[in-house]
DNA sequence: CGCGAAGTTGAGAGAGGTCAACTCCGGTGG
DNA sequence: CCACCGGAGTTGACCTCTCTCAACTTCGCG
């Protein structure tokens, strides 16, 4: 038993999220009738790579990670999944990555792909919402690449905390249900450096810890040196002129 | 005038690609009637960030980059776009990134968003294809994160070459229309290190250059040390057990 | 012929990976 | 109740790799 289990992403109640799946400001009620709920233990696989893509998934409560194991034994986490997030979309009838629960008792809603597609064929508005959701996922994924591309370790960890804060219902009191190892594999750095960076930020007074898995952001501006973390700031590059590097 | 202008991604002829847009194995003919074609000069902006998202786009011939300029002056390229690639999808009626032509005379097809959406409402099959395309884009984007997360410079550049080879019509003779600076901003490393890595791979006999922008891959296996570059190899991580790292 | 942009190569310095030791905490069994 | 154990997390010391700055080459173009 872990202390943060009771408070994972508290804003979304189960009933609410099942009967009215929410992404962005849009509410999809049409799919709710098809949903099946599954409870997952800490670390339990939700689906594996190369599994047939029979379902689309949504986190109802708890948290999960989407990850890949590389041939050299390293693990990479390509996304963290929180309540309301849809995932497991795949063409070609098989998944590219695997997904696992992070929190004990994570509740996952399963939507049979075939059924939803039939529903979509009769309901263009639902189709549009799913499309927009996928478009947003692309944008979000590409925005996350900006985080990975950041130079220093403190910048990466800072940008990570800001991303988690933006996805968290409570603005400055951020719950990090994942382990330091998960964070390291997400940011493509070593656990030691993640730990050092967090300690560094703490000593600078930029953040504090209520406990290991609960961070409070004290100085939001200091977290993104240069203001690159938020994804609003993407400017076009003019002919590569500005390139001094 | 540059020597590679005439041979950019030669397999897709203009007429063919306009009348029958191709993604994956799927052909979308319904959208073709709405397309408008625009020719872009080298470096010319196709659309800027924060521009209203009026169109969806597709490269007919040539190449483009999707990029962001960070607050500290650095540039990040989040995607390279080649013939057949759709891009510029955005919700919230504004783009998150900017897009610019890389090759002189790059031809871009513009699809009015409103018109296509109306078309989709009447044609579920078209909607499904667009959805699948977006799903693929997510998978591809997340797979690219694996490249960014690789440790050494030679691994990154090797994985980049493999990615380009897979997206290229000609398997081992890969055309790289973008500059070394573009590659550097795509892989989040310095131009010098990109250049050094390429030279290194050349001296090892892994690759050769027909000219600066045309690479031939001699030893495909040596390019992905450990075999992590291809995205088929994504295994699930079991409870984090394998994690020694 | 000279200029500037793109690309390559060299030398140094700083940052993060690696290995190791240590603490902290919960769980288990005596 | 306490000793023991193992995993997660933190901190330290060392070393390697990449960034940075710089010089130089190559190439296309005026």
- Using only C-alpha atoms, the radius of gyration of chain A works out to 19 Å
Helix fraction of chain A by DSSP (H/I, runs of at least 4): 25-40%
* Major beta-sheet overview of chain A: 4 strands, antiparallel
Low-confidence stretches of chain A: 1-27, 229-245
Shape of chain A: globular
Distance between the termini of chain A: 48 Å
**Multimeric status of the protein:** homodimer
Tally the beta strands of chain A: 13
Secondary structure class of chain A reads alpha+beta
Number of helices of chain A: 7
Task: Characterize the structure shown.
2 copies of one chain form a homodimer. With 245 residues, chain A is of the alpha+beta class. Helix content of chain A is 33%, strand content 23%. Chain A contains 7 helices and 13 strands. Chain A has helices spanning 14-19, 113-122, 124-148, 153-167, 180-187, 191-203, 220-223, and strands spanning 22-23, 26-27, 36-40, 45-47, 55-61, 64-69, 75-81, 86-87, 98-101, 106-112, 173-175, 207-211, 214-217. In chain A, the strands form 4 sheets. In chain A, strands 3-10-5-8 form a 4-stranded antiparallel sheet. In chain A, helix 2 (113-122) packs across helix 3, helix 4 (153-167) crosses helix 6 (191-203) and helix 5 crosses helix 6 (191-203). The longest helix of chain A is centred in the middle third of the chain and has 25 residues, at 124-148. The first copy, chain A, is globular. The N and C termini of chain A lie far apart (48 Å). Mean pLDDT of chain A is 81; it is low at 1-27 and 229-245. Chains A and B meet through strand 6, strand 7, helix 2 and helix 3 of A and strand 6, strand 7, helix 2 and helix 3 of B. Chain A binds a DNA duplex (30 and 30 nucleotides) through helix 6.
């Amino acid at each position: 038993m872990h202390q943060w289990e009771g408070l994972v992403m508290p804003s979304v109640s189960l009933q609410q999220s099942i009967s009215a799946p929410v992404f962005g400001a849009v509410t999809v009620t049409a799919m709710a009738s098809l949903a099946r709920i599954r409870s997952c233990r800490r670390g339990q696989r939700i689906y594996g790579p190369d599994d047939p893509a029979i379902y689309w998934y949504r986190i109802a409560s708890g948290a999960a990670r989407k990850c890949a194991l590389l041939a050299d034994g390293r693990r990479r986490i390509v996304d963290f999944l929180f309540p309301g997030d849809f995932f497991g979309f795949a063409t070609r009838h098989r998944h590219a990555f695997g997904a696992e629960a992070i929190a004990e008792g994570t509740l996952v809603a399963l939507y049979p792909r075939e059924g939803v597609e039939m529903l979509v064929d009769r309901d263009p508005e639902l189709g549009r919402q799913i499309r927009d959701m996928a478009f947003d996922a692309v944008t979000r994924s590409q925005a996350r690449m900006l985080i990975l591309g950041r130079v220093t370790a403190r910048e990466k960890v800072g940008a990570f905390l800001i991303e988690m804060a933006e996805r968290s219902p409570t603005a400055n009191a951020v719950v990090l249900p994942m382990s330091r190892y998960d964070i390291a594999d997400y940011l493509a750095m070593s656990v030691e450096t993640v730990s050092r960076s967090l300690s560094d930020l703490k000593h600078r007074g930029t953040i504090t810890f209520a406990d290991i898995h609960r961070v409070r952001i004290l100085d939001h501006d200091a977290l993104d040196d240069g203001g690159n973390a938020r994804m609003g700031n993407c400017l076009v590059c003019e002919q590569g002129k500005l390139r001094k590097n």
